[in-house]
Amino acid sequence: MSTRAPFAFDEKNATNAAGELGGYSPMMPKRAWMPALTVLFLMLVFAVKGALLTPPPPPAFPGPGAFNTDRALARLTRILGDQRPHPVDSDANDAVRDRLIAELRAIGLQPRIQEATDCSAIPRSPVVSCSHVRNVIATVGAGAGQHILLNAHYDSTPTGPGAADDGIGVASLLEIAAVLQARPPPRPVTFLFNEGEEFGLNGASAFVREEALSDDIDSLINVESRGVSGPALMFETSAPNGAAISVFANAAHRPFANSLSMDFARLIPNTTDVVKFRPAGWTILNFAIIGNETRYHTPGDTIAALDRASLHHVGSQALAAARAMSVRYDAPTARTYVFTDVAGRMFLRLRLPIAAIAICLMIGLALAQAYRRKALGKPLLLAFGMTVGGILAAALAGTAAGFIRPGDYWRGYPLITYLAVYSTMLLAMGSIWRRWGANADRWPMRTSAWLLTLLLGGAISLLLPGALIFFLAAPAVALAGVLLANRVGWAPRLLVVAALIQLLMFAELLALIEMLLIDGPIFAVAPLAALAALPLIIETEAARLRAIAIGLSATAALLWGAALLMPRASADRPAAFTIDYFRDDTTGQASWAVASKQAPLPASFPGKWRKAIPAYSTRTRWTSGAPLIDIPRPEVRLVRIEPVANGRRVLLAFAANGANAISIRFAERTPLQRLGTPGETLAIPAKGKPDKALLRCSGRSCDGMIVEILLADRRPVVADLFATRFALPPQGAALAARRPANAHAQYGPDSSIRRRSVKF
Length: 760
Description:
By secondary structure, the protein is an alpha+beta fold. Helices cover 38% and strands 21% of the residues. The protein has a 15-stranded mixed sheet that branches. It has a 5-stranded antiparallel sheet with strand order 15-16-21-18-19, with no helix packed on it. The termini are far apart.
């Protein structure tokens, strides 16, 4: 075995390899410094991997027909005005809509409004969300053929101004409309600015259900946001994805997309309007940015926080995709691809059946080589032990840190904590390799490491098929090296090249996971990182890892110490800290509640606090006793009860009495079949999340709204009625004033909530 390969080996392994390679023997002295360089290199990659997700900067002077970021940002600034929150069916959203329509007219379009009351539910969820929406629709071009639909929502949450969510979509669509208006495409492009996405995807639902134009659409580009920075990730397509991926591959200049993100999109709780559009069978591309979620659904989602490069990348990608869709394209609609970008510079795709066959063949070949090299016993066990040991060490360290400092302590400076996780993982893997790998033959270990990678990749792909693309290229190169081991002296270098390819592909995926898992668990990156590091660690000389282990121990200790001592939040990454007042008329008691992601309250925060799950929520909060304060009290009026077969239909009229939202929640065993408005009810699944069925309404139109409830029997039902006002009572001002620095409400605004029981 040649010591001219980039890593050093002990003499025994070099001698063994020389025999295998037909007499090739080391001609250079051992490189004792290579193990240290390997560990340093791995830590450096883990530290700078976020650079792989850097969007390209906007051009200083965009040419004709290009996306103009400055112009898009100026329109968004005018539309948001004073940047107040503008939730669905509110006075503030009326003002935003009026300014949006003015911008569309200034472009030269003639927008129209679709007005509807909609009740929607996420699939398999017992929560029905109702609101009155006003969608803004405009079309560019009068060419023949079906329409392309570009969609974004113009409402925000009640918590923040929504400059990114979904101002980035509004600004992108307006600029794309201006560009296409100057040079109309071959077929019509319709722009939908929908209302009510944040509350329950109501605008998209109403468009598909009631708008005649929806029958003339065959393609969709959706633009969303789950943060304020980062590249435009194309994270979701129609299924099968053949047509969508063909369009994206031909259109994207700096592509950021991978098929694994589609599997993740099904797992995370966030949803987009695509949920309502997907059943129509259109060709779909869904774009979003996800950088710095600490400002997502918060008062910090402002124009100042929105990254211009992200706006440019989203807008230019959507524009290119719209142009590609607007011309005739022959796409293999029935095909499914697995795909990924490589640092936004390359786009790789492969048909799913071919990828599945390829990994099966490689697993078979790796098993054969492992059997031939006697790698199925101790070598495979050692590779598995290193991987599992690294994962367990990271998990134990992360769990211990969570006990020492509860809550999302990493939020302000996440990279420090992630580096602590990676260094702990490397320390454990290196220690196991030094203890049991000093006398291990190198080629059996190499073979077992790549066999393990393929086996785990195949197992992961059974649950998440999109992961296949990440377990093909590097193992293929590695197996080529294994097969050539007896023929050429440079075969070990192929193993190093394979390890570097795997590290590059996994590094970008790790950066994405870090962005997504803002709430942890922080050690969730360890399994993928361990697989990325394993082949390179095996290339090091195990006997020379003692000094490195000491250095890694000190590094891990320093990083964990810094993670536990650094401020929990920063000006750029504020902490979550939402304050609620809750009055429960069923018990005659009231309380304050603080949602802080389990972080302890400051010692100076007034009141006596304990952890509890309030009756209005399913999440743990800090609670403290509060006086009874007069806040809006929800009311319902019984309109009518009609007997039906084996049950009854109940019509109730809501009275919000000054609240911004009102809801009715049913006990778990309530024989509930359907919920909604009269004649427009939705089936309620027998099982779903949350456990209790709920109908909720937000906006001015909830006052007087009539809802229909279909029950499977005729026994009386007791339900909880909630009214929510998006503000604290005056008595809460003292608590709000003591909110910690660099903290703000997230996901929900500071609110006043009142509960009472109703029987019908």
